[in-house]
Amino acid sequence: MQKKWSRLLLFVLLISFVSIVAACSSSESDESDSDADQEDNATEGTDSEEAEGDSDAEVELRILWWGSQDRHDRTLEAIDMYMEENPHVEISPEFTGWDGYWEKMATQAAGGNMPDIVQMDYAYLTEYVGRDLLVDLNPFVEDGTLDLSDVDDIYIDGGRDDGGLFAVNLGANVHGAVYDKELFDEAGVPEPEPGYTYEDLKSFAIELSENLDGAYGIHPFAGVNNLRHYLRQNGVSLFNEEGTALGYEDDQLLIDYLQLTVDMLASGAAAPADVFMDAGSNVEQQPIVNGETAMLLDIYSNQIVAIESAAGRSLELSLSPVLEGGENGHFLKPSQFFSVTTHSEEQEEAAKFISYITNNLEVNEVLNAERGVPIATAVRDHLRDLQDEVGVKMFDFVELAQDYSKPIDPPEPEGATEILSLYENEVEHPIYYGQTTPEEAAVNFREKASEILAKNE
Question: Which positions make up the signal peptide (predicted)?
Answer without folding.
Answer: 1-23
